[in-house]
Q: What sequence folds into this?
Protein backbone atom coordinates (compact mmCIF):
# COMPACT_ATOMS: atom_id res chain seq x y z
CA UNK A 1 0.00 0.00 0.00
CA UNK A 2 1.29 3.51 -0.71
CA UNK A 3 2.77 5.72 1.97
CA UNK A 4 0.50 8.12 3.79
CA UNK A 5 0.44 11.46 2.02
CA UNK A 6 -1.43 14.54 3.14
CA UNK A 7 -2.87 17.18 0.86
CA UNK A 8 -1.74 20.77 1.05
CA UNK A 9 -3.83 22.86 3.43
CA UNK A 10 -6.46 24.79 1.54
CA UNK A 11 -9.72 26.55 2.13
CA UNK A 12 -11.90 25.09 4.84
CA UNK A 13 -15.45 24.25 3.85
CA UNK A 14 -18.25 23.19 6.14
CA UNK A 15 -20.78 20.43 5.72
CA UNK A 16 -23.47 19.43 8.16
CA UNK A 17 -23.93 15.70 8.62
CA UNK A 18 -27.40 15.03 10.00
CA UNK A 19 -28.53 11.73 11.46
CA UNK A 20 -32.26 11.67 12.12
CA UNK A 21 -33.71 9.53 14.89
CA UNK A 22 -37.27 9.89 13.63
CA UNK A 23 -38.55 6.72 11.87
CA UNK A 24 -40.36 8.85 9.28
CA UNK A 25 -37.34 11.02 8.63
CA UNK A 26 -35.13 7.94 8.51
CA UNK A 27 -37.36 6.37 5.85
CA UNK A 28 -37.30 9.58 3.81
CA UNK A 29 -33.52 9.76 4.16
CA UNK A 30 -33.07 6.20 2.95
CA UNK A 31 -35.24 6.93 -0.08
CA UNK A 32 -33.25 10.03 -1.01
CA UNK A 33 -30.18 9.36 -3.12
CA UNK A 34 -29.19 13.04 -3.08
CA UNK A 35 -28.28 13.18 0.62
CA UNK A 36 -24.73 11.97 1.24
CA UNK A 37 -24.15 10.68 4.74
CA UNK A 38 -20.58 11.82 5.30
CA UNK A 39 -18.64 13.33 8.19
CA UNK A 40 -15.05 14.57 7.77
CA UNK A 41 -12.46 15.47 10.36
CA UNK A 42 -11.40 19.12 10.51
CA UNK A 43 -7.89 20.19 9.60
CA UNK A 44 -5.63 19.78 12.61
CA UNK A 45 -1.96 20.10 13.56
CA UNK A 46 -1.53 16.31 13.48
CA UNK A 47 -3.50 13.87 11.32
CA UNK A 48 -5.69 11.30 13.03
CA UNK A 49 -5.84 7.67 11.97
CA UNK A 50 -9.14 8.30 10.22
CA UNK A 51 -10.24 11.23 8.08
CA UNK A 52 -13.94 10.75 8.74
CA UNK A 53 -16.78 8.34 8.10
CA UNK A 54 -19.08 7.46 5.22
CA UNK A 55 -22.46 5.79 5.71
CA UNK A 56 -23.48 4.31 2.34
CA UNK A 57 -26.96 2.95 1.71
CA UNK A 58 -25.72 -0.34 0.24
CA UNK A 59 -22.63 -2.44 -0.41
CA UNK A 60 -22.82 -1.70 -4.13
CA UNK A 61 -19.71 0.31 -5.01
CA UNK A 62 -20.97 1.06 -8.52
CA UNK A 63 -24.09 2.67 -7.06
CA UNK A 64 -22.50 4.35 -4.04
CA UNK A 65 -19.13 5.75 -5.16
CA UNK A 66 -20.40 8.40 -7.64
CA UNK A 67 -22.20 10.43 -4.97
CA UNK A 68 -19.14 10.22 -2.69
CA UNK A 69 -16.69 11.42 -5.35
CA UNK A 70 -19.11 14.19 -6.36
CA UNK A 71 -18.53 15.73 -2.93
CA UNK A 72 -14.87 14.83 -2.42
CA UNK A 73 -13.47 15.73 -5.86
CA UNK A 74 -13.89 19.50 -5.34
CA UNK A 75 -12.48 19.26 -1.80
CA UNK A 76 -9.59 16.85 -2.13
CA UNK A 77 -8.82 16.85 -5.84
CA UNK A 78 -10.02 14.24 -8.28
CA UNK A 79 -10.30 10.83 -6.61
CA UNK A 80 -8.55 8.44 -8.97
CA UNK A 81 -8.42 5.21 -6.97
CA UNK A 82 -10.06 3.55 -3.99
CA UNK A 83 -9.30 0.32 -2.20
CA UNK A 84 -11.43 -1.82 0.08
CA UNK A 85 -11.18 -4.99 2.07
CA UNK A 86 -13.48 -7.48 0.27
CA UNK A 87 -14.72 -8.95 3.57
CA UNK A 88 -17.82 -6.73 3.57
CA UNK A 89 -18.10 -5.99 -0.17
CA UNK A 90 -19.77 -8.82 -2.15
CA UNK A 91 -18.51 -7.47 -5.49
CA UNK A 92 -15.37 -5.39 -6.03
CA UNK A 93 -15.43 -3.94 -9.56
CA UNK A 94 -12.17 -3.00 -11.25
CA UNK A 95 -13.49 0.40 -12.31
CA UNK A 96 -16.44 2.62 -11.39
CA UNK A 97 -17.65 5.40 -13.71
CA UNK A 98 -18.22 8.67 -11.83
CA UNK A 99 -18.90 12.21 -12.97
CA UNK A 100 -16.32 13.13 -15.59
CA UNK A 101 -13.89 10.27 -15.05
CA UNK A 102 -13.37 6.69 -13.90
CA UNK A 103 -12.22 5.55 -10.47
CA UNK A 104 -10.04 2.45 -10.32
CA UNK A 105 -10.89 0.04 -7.51
CA UNK A 106 -8.52 -2.34 -5.78
CA UNK A 107 -8.62 -4.49 -2.70
CA UNK A 108 -6.38 -5.73 0.11
CA UNK A 109 -7.42 -8.58 2.37
CA UNK A 110 -4.74 -8.71 5.05
CA UNK A 111 -3.32 -5.20 4.70
CA UNK A 112 -6.52 -3.14 4.94
CA UNK A 113 -8.96 -2.74 7.81
CA UNK A 114 -12.24 -4.45 6.79
CA UNK A 115 -14.25 -1.39 7.90
CA UNK A 116 -12.17 1.16 6.03
CA UNK A 117 -12.25 2.79 2.59
CA UNK A 118 -8.97 4.17 1.24
CA UNK A 119 -9.14 6.99 -1.29
CA UNK A 120 -6.29 8.32 -3.42
CA UNK A 121 -6.13 11.57 -5.33
CA UNK A 122 -3.31 11.67 -7.87
CA UNK A 123 -0.42 13.76 -6.46
CA UNK A 124 -2.75 15.27 -3.87
CA UNK A 125 -3.05 12.84 -1.00
CA UNK A 126 -4.53 9.77 0.62
CA UNK A 127 -7.49 9.55 2.97
CA UNK A 128 -9.02 6.83 5.12
CA UNK A 129 -12.74 6.73 5.87
CA UNK A 130 -14.59 4.47 8.27
CA UNK A 131 -17.40 2.76 6.38
CA UNK A 132 -20.49 2.62 8.57
CA UNK A 133 -22.45 -0.53 7.62
CA UNK A 134 -25.60 0.38 5.66
CA UNK A 135 -28.02 -1.25 8.13
CA UNK A 136 -26.54 0.45 11.19
CA UNK A 137 -29.09 2.12 13.45
CA UNK A 138 -29.13 5.94 13.38
CA UNK A 139 -27.92 6.19 16.99
CA UNK A 140 -24.89 3.95 16.38
CA UNK A 141 -24.19 5.62 13.04
CA UNK A 142 -24.21 9.05 14.68
CA UNK A 143 -21.73 7.87 17.31
CA UNK A 144 -19.44 6.25 14.72
CA UNK A 145 -19.45 9.27 12.42
CA UNK A 146 -18.68 11.61 15.29
CA UNK A 147 -15.89 9.41 16.65
CA UNK A 148 -14.30 8.83 13.22
CA UNK A 149 -14.19 12.55 12.48
CA UNK A 150 -12.55 13.45 15.80
CA UNK A 151 -9.25 15.17 14.88
CA UNK A 152 -7.68 13.73 18.02
CA UNK A 153 -8.92 10.21 17.38
CA UNK A 154 -6.45 7.35 17.78
CA UNK A 155 -8.73 4.38 17.13
CA UNK A 156 -8.80 2.28 13.99
CA UNK A 157 -12.02 1.65 12.09
CA UNK A 158 -12.36 -1.84 13.57
CA UNK A 159 -11.77 -0.57 17.10
CA UNK A 160 -14.54 1.97 16.68
CA UNK A 161 -16.88 -0.71 15.38
CA UNK A 162 -16.10 -2.85 18.44
CA UNK A 163 -16.74 0.09 20.76
CA UNK A 164 -20.04 0.87 19.04
CA UNK A 165 -21.11 -2.76 19.49
CA UNK A 166 -20.18 -2.58 23.18
CA UNK A 167 -22.20 0.61 23.65
CA UNK A 168 -25.19 -0.99 21.94
CA UNK A 169 -24.99 -3.94 24.31
CA UNK A 170 -24.80 -1.62 27.33
CA UNK A 171 -27.76 0.41 26.07
CA UNK A 172 -29.86 -2.71 25.41
CA UNK A 173 -29.03 -4.07 28.86
CA UNK A 174 -30.00 -0.77 30.45
CA UNK A 175 -33.33 -0.75 28.61
CA UNK A 176 -34.01 -4.30 29.78
CA UNK A 177 -33.26 -3.32 33.39
CA UNK A 178 -35.49 -0.29 33.08
CA UNK A 179 -38.32 -2.42 31.63
CA UNK A 180 -38.08 -4.85 34.55
CA UNK A 181 -37.99 -1.95 37.00
CA UNK A 182 -41.11 -0.43 35.47
CA UNK A 183 -42.95 -3.76 35.43
CA UNK A 184 -42.22 -4.20 39.12
CA UNK A 185 -43.66 -0.81 40.01
CA UNK A 186 -40.47 1.19 40.06
CA UNK A 187 -42.28 4.37 39.03
CA UNK A 188 -44.41 4.14 42.16
CA UNK A 189 -41.44 3.95 44.50
CA UNK A 190 -41.60 6.59 47.22
CA UNK A 191 -37.89 7.31 47.02
CA UNK A 192 -36.92 8.46 43.50
CA UNK A 193 -33.25 8.24 44.44
CA UNK A 194 -33.62 4.48 44.89
CA UNK A 195 -34.26 3.94 41.19
CA UNK A 196 -31.19 2.72 39.30
CA UNK A 197 -29.62 5.29 37.03
CA UNK A 198 -29.79 4.35 33.37
CA UNK A 199 -26.84 5.86 31.53
CA UNK A 200 -27.74 7.36 28.18
CA UNK A 201 -25.54 6.91 25.14
CA UNK A 202 -26.03 9.79 22.75
CA UNK A 203 -24.01 11.33 19.96
CA UNK A 204 -24.46 14.64 18.20
CA UNK A 205 -22.82 15.53 14.91
CA UNK A 206 -21.62 19.13 14.96
CA UNK A 207 -20.63 21.13 11.90
CA UNK A 208 -17.57 19.41 10.44
CA UNK A 209 -14.90 21.63 8.84
CA UNK A 210 -13.70 20.05 5.63
CA UNK A 211 -10.78 20.37 3.30
CA UNK A 212 -8.08 18.10 4.68
A:
Amino acid sequence: MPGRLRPARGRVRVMTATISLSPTAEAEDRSSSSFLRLSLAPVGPAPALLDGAWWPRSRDLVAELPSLTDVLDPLWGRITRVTVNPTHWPVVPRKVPVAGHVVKVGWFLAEQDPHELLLLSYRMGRWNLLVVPPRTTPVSAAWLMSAASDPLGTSTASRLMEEAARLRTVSETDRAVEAVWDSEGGHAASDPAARPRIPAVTAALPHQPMGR
User: Anything to note?
Assistant: The first strand starts at residue 13 and ends at 15.
